[in-house]
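ligand=pyridoxal-5'-phosphate
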Amino acid sequence: MSWENKVRKVVPYVPGEQPKATNIIKLNTNENPYPPAPGVKKAMEEYTKRSEELRLYPSPTVENLVRELADYYKLPEDQIFVGVGSDDVLATAFLTFFNSEKPVAFPDITYSFYEVWAQLYNIPYVRKPLDENFKIVQEDYFGEFGGVIITNPNAPTGIAESRDWVEEIIRKNSDCVVIVDEAYVDFGAETCIPLINQYDNLLVVHTFSKSRSLAGLRVGVGMGSKKLIKYLNDVKFSVNSYTINRPTLEYAALSLRDEAYFRECVDKICATRAWTMEELGKLGFTMTDSKTNFLFAKHETVPAEELFEMLKTKGIYVRYFKAPRINEYLRITVGTQDEMETLVQVLKEYLAKA
Ligand SMILES: *Cc1c(COP(=O)(O)O)cnc(C)c1O
């Protein structure tokens, strides 16, 4: 018998490429094209004077950041959980809340990490097909489940549902935890945070990676009832007490304090999204109605994979999923206006010859 028989073997999540070249237009992992709030840069410069502090462990309860988040979201501090990116919040939530023989339900087309965590933790799961317009079928989530996870707006489709629509799913699942992953909510969808005090089985997850331009910092937030957050923390403290490093605790707080800058960046992205949708439409693309910082687009004649490869040769990276139903689509992050103008120009020239 080899030791390999005793290994936990998993098929990992495959993140988008992070190319080494710097002179590229990177529209493949939904990062924000604008820098983080100016206060973050200033704090980083000032932190170098206190680098000696790194001798010390960070706060295991991250109370300063939790206080800032509580102020920002108008929630009590004991209803907030902080993780190393929302991936960490979600992985911890899967481990904590999805512990039943009944399957956890999520769409067949959604954030592909959910399936990876379900497999990693041996959680039974069921993938519910989106309808022909790539919309989540609400009634599919009215049943007996070990848990439910919905991304709203969904990825990679970009489609948002209303808070009332999500609430109906929560209402019908009072016997299990319902997670609402709101990674893209700031780009034009309704948050379910106001429902937290009505449903003690609801966990709403946000991230600093997209709308706050801090993917490199790794901060995510889980919000829910006091009881839910306590269970999450019990599992977190059973794995790693010191998840958020000392400087990150300060930088994340500074991002929250600059609401004007945050709004300005989000508004710019939404305006560029509208412009890009219109231009791509003129070039023969059809798209879902995105409420996120990416577009999910398909050309009427040229295959997505061909466009994906062509764009790469021009130094423009977008995301292509070689998976059933979505392999005719490109997922294109909304970059700066300049970047999107270049993208449109390159596509225009190629399609004129195709
Ligand atoms: C990007 C993303 C996340 C993870 O983001 P983090 O960088 O780990 O905070 C989670 N869910 C969805 C749907 C995402 O698109």
